[in-house]
């Protein structure tokens, strides 16, 4: 596997692949990799000839400097995992390489995708994401880019941006990978103690209880939200950042749930922020399922 730290070197490699008629698949990450990230590499391999991953802890998407500082970094392990998963190249730029002197351009998606959930509680976060993804696309020049459903709002925003800016990239959503106990894999999970993890399990458990309640006929959003809150707020040092029922038709918060809704939540467990959601229908989500 090739590793490139400069934009020029990654560009030269991508250009050579494209000239050779290869379809480039791309998996952007912030490192501290786990099986969830590797599942995206596998999906990208199925949809392309050569896969590039990037590892870049993007400073412009962190609204909190301490969170940026504490974000886990495990480069050596990440490189061997990516090589093992069949990545052809990895792009690992420094912040100074990505944001050069005088950088003054940002990409901002507006509208229903960016006025709620993580966008409401992390101001500027998705502006940083949209900006860095656009920049990475410009360097890597992928034909297809794979993002995890775990960060549902993120992939929908990226897809909107790709459509609006006429970027020649296909955006693909890959399903959320969970540990056997049900917790969605996340780089941030490694900051949880055993006791913290036990508390965090209330999140997938509550979401699953809500899905079952929906299956049994419950349609009131507040009741579904309560099922999640009840699993979490019994613990000390657990705070609900948000928990909302969102209709994928319009990406609107709704008080009455239907088959096109997801229940999405973000929670702080001992200061570690975790997000998860469930489609009340129990299905995986594709970008085509969402009208917004
Ligand atoms: P991150 O390194 O957290 O920025 O994530 C990089 C990519 O991996 C994003 O597209 C995430 O949605 C995706 N991802 C993170 N965790 C998971 C997971 N548990 N299952 C599937 N994809 C994931």
Provide the fold topology.
Elements: E1 2-4, H1 7-19, E2 24-29, H2 35-47, E3 50-55, H3 65-70, H4 75-85, E4 89-91, H5 95-98, H6 118-121, H7 125-140, E5 144-148, H8 152-164, E6 170-174, H9 194-200, H10 202-215, H11 221-232, E7 238-247, E8 252-253, E9 261-269, E10 272-279
Parallel strand pairs: 1-4, 2-3, 2-5, 3-4, 5-6
Antiparallel strand pairs: 7-8, 7-9, 9-10
Helix pairs in contact: 7-8, 10-11
Bound molecules: adenosine monophosphate.
The site of adenosine monophosphate has 17 residues, from helix 2 and strand 5.
Keyphrases for this structure?
292 residues; Rossmann fold; Pantoate--beta-alanine Ligase, Chain: A,domain 2; 2 domains; four-stranded antiparallel beta sheet; 11 helices; 10 strands
Can you describe this structure in just a few lines?
The chain is α/β, with parallel strands linked by helices. The protein contains 11 helices and 10 strands.
How is this structure best described in words?
This protein has helices at residues 7-19, 35-47, 65-70, 75-85, 95-98, 118-121, 125-140, 152-164, 194-200, 202-215, 221-232, and strands at 2-4, 24-29, 50-55, 89-91, 144-148, 170-174, 238-247, 252-253, 261-269, 272-279. By secondary structure, the protein is of the alpha/beta class. The protein folds into two domains: 2-174, HUPs (Rossmann fold), CATH 3.40.50; 187-279, Pantoate-beta-alanine ligase, C-terminal domain (Pantoate--beta-alanine Ligase, Chain: A,domain 2). The strands form two sheets. A six-stranded parallel beta sheet has the order 1-4-3-2-5-6, with helices on both faces. It has a four-stranded antiparallel beta sheet with strand order 8-7-9-10. The longest helix has 16 residues, at 125-140. It is globular and about 55 Å long. The mean pLDDT is 97. Bound molecules: adenosine monophosphate.
């Amino acid at each position: 596997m090739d590793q490139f730290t400069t934009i020029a070197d990654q560009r030269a490699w991508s250009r050579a692949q494209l000239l050779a008629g290869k379809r480039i698949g791309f998996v952007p990450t912030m490192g501290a990799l786990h099986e969830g990230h590797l599942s995206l590499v596998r999906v990208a391999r199925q949809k392309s000839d050569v896969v590039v991953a990037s590892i870049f802890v993007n400073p412009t998407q962190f609204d909190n400097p301490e969170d940026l500082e504490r974000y886990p970094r495990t480069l050596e392990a990440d490189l061997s995992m990516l090589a093992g998963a069949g990545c052809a190249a990895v792009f690992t730029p420094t912040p100074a390489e990505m944001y050069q002197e005088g950088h003054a351009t940002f990409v901002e998606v507006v509208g229903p995708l960016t006025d709620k959930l993580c966008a409401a509680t992390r101001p500027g976060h998705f502006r940083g994401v949209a900006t860095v993804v656009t920049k990475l696309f410009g360097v890597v020049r992928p034909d297809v880019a794979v993002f995890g459903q775990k960060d549902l709002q993120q992939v929908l925003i990226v897809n909107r941006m790709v459509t609006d800016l006429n970027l020649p990239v296909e955006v693909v959503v890959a399903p959320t990978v969970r540990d056997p106990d049900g917790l969605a894999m996340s780089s941030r999970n490694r900051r949880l103690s055993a006791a913290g993890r036990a508390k965090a399990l209330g999140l997938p458990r509550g979401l699953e209880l809500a899905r079952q309640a929906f299956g049994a006929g419950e349609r009131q959003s507040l009741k579904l939200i309560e099922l999640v809150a009840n699993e979490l707020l019994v613990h000390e040092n657990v705070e609900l950042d948000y928990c909302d029922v969102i209709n994928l038709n319009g990406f609107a918060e709704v008080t009455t749930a239907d088959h096109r809704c997801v229940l999405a939540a973000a929670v702080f467990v001992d200061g570690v922020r975790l997000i998860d959601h469930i489609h009340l229908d129990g299905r995986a989500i594709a970008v085509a399922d969402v009208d917004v």
